[in-house]
Amino acid sequence: MIERIESKGFYIEQCGLPGETKADQRVPAQHNTIQVSRDRWFVVYETRGFRGVDDNCSVIYQLRKEKPDGEALAEGYLEKSINDWDPLRDGRKFVKQGNHSIAFGVPKGALINGQRVAHEGVFAVAWGNHGRVLDPETDYLWHSEEIPAPVETHRGVWVQFRLNEKEDDIEILQPVQALRQKGYEMGEALCSHEELRHMNHSFVGPVAHNEDRSEWLHAQHWEGACVPVKYRWNPATGLYEWVESGPQLKGPPDRGIGEGSIVPYHGDWLFAARLSGKDYGIAWFRTNDLFNWEPKLALSEEVGSNCPRTVYAFPDGAVRVFTTDQRNSPYQHIYQRRIPLNVLDINPDDNFAVTRSDVVFDSIKEGLPIPEKHAPTMHFCRLLSHTGGRFGYATYFVRTRAILPREYSIGNYKGIATQEEIEACGVYYSKITYDRDYPPTWTFG
Q: Rounded to 5 degrees, what angle do the CA atoms 153, 28, 17 make?
């Protein structure tokens, strides 16, 4: 049980790389964190600009010392955003975006059933590439509803790495390459669902699938559907491969789903996804095998939110959803009401009922200089791996919904951002206090 949640300020205040700082109007945004050895933590995140809606930019990594919020020993690019990307090789230029970055792997030196495993210390990072059209005269990034980019510009990529000998930086084992299922390395089809073309990642990182954690499960979303996928470490190459894709998970006939999360629960797997459109609700699936089953949809109106959401199994055994509890938000007058950030307790055995709601972060109560008319927003929350004891951490993106060039033409963005509110944007974190000690995700000899 959670006893208390308290904000701790910035987790990633700003990127330290030239061209990616707040002086350049770029801020840290979506992100994930994994433990990579006893006292090293790896953070992957994207920078985001203010040229238009979802101005995702470069993919950055940090290697941190001793604890998740410890000193950054290294920071660098995994992929740099460019404005003259020509992925189709036909002369058309796009902004190359990176988003939804995730990472997984067994930490160096970790024990599984009291033993070290051959695949320890090998880590994979994946993210989505997306093409966007930039107006060269106004520096406005056109939304896909205004000027869509070809579907072929929406693809997944990944890289694999290990720690260097001094554990003060990373060494690349597999350079950035297309993320494709094994057996579909060439051609238009990216996986066994050959008709699917528009691939994106879940916000939530993969979860271990088997006992020795050589297999990992992740959620991808495609054109209105979600697909569970399996990554497996190959001892012959020393790298992970995408080896299997589960069935397509779909919502009601008139509603797509996306932004999936996979959660282990009492011997089963829960798959949760966000419904498209503006109505509240969440799509749930429950099974003991994500790859050989006939999906049965359970629609729940219990989660009163149409915001991004992430779902986790917490150290205390509870299933919880991070999102904004919009029905009960005290800020009903604010556009889209993505404030405050809440964590909702879910009972999967009672039609996924919400049994409790706690506030994780409220930018207005914290005094951040993001005016209400600019729709302060806090979302994309991640639960960090538990290090043992009573305390844990959650990280999340806090931002304004104002932009720089002009008013957003289809109404999703309100106002022109000031430098002061840009300085307040970034990745924040909160400390979670549980009712008692819980074991760590990883143990070391």
A: 90
Structure token pair of residue 189? 């089809």
> 89: domain range?
2-444
* Residue 424 CB-density burial (10 A; 0-12 exposed, 13-18 middle, 19+ buried): buried
| Structure-block tokens of residue 396 | 């999340």
| Model pLDDT for residues 172-224, shown as the tens digit of each residue | 999 999 999 999 999 999 999 999 988 888 899 999 999 999 999 999 999 88
Number of domains in the chain: 1
Does the pTM of the predicted model rise above 0.85? yes
* CATH code for the domain in which residue 131 is found: 2.120.10.10
- In the chain, count of helices (H) and strands (E)? 1, 29
* Whether residue 295 has a cis bond before it, omega within 30° of 0: no
DSSP string across 126-169: EEEEEEE-EETTTTEE--TTTSPPPGGG-EEEEEEEEE-TTSSS
Residue type present at position 4: R
Phi and psi at residue 81, to the nearest 5°: -70, 140
How far is it, in rounded angstroms, from Cα 170 to Cα 192? 33
What band does 409 get if pLDDT is binned at 50, 70 and 90?
Answer: very low
Nearest to 281 by CA among 320, 219, 247, 323: 323
Chain centroid offset of residue 204 CA: 5
Give burial (CB, 10 Å; 0-12/13-18/19+) of 238. middle
Closest by CA to 36, choosing from 78, 76, 66, is 66
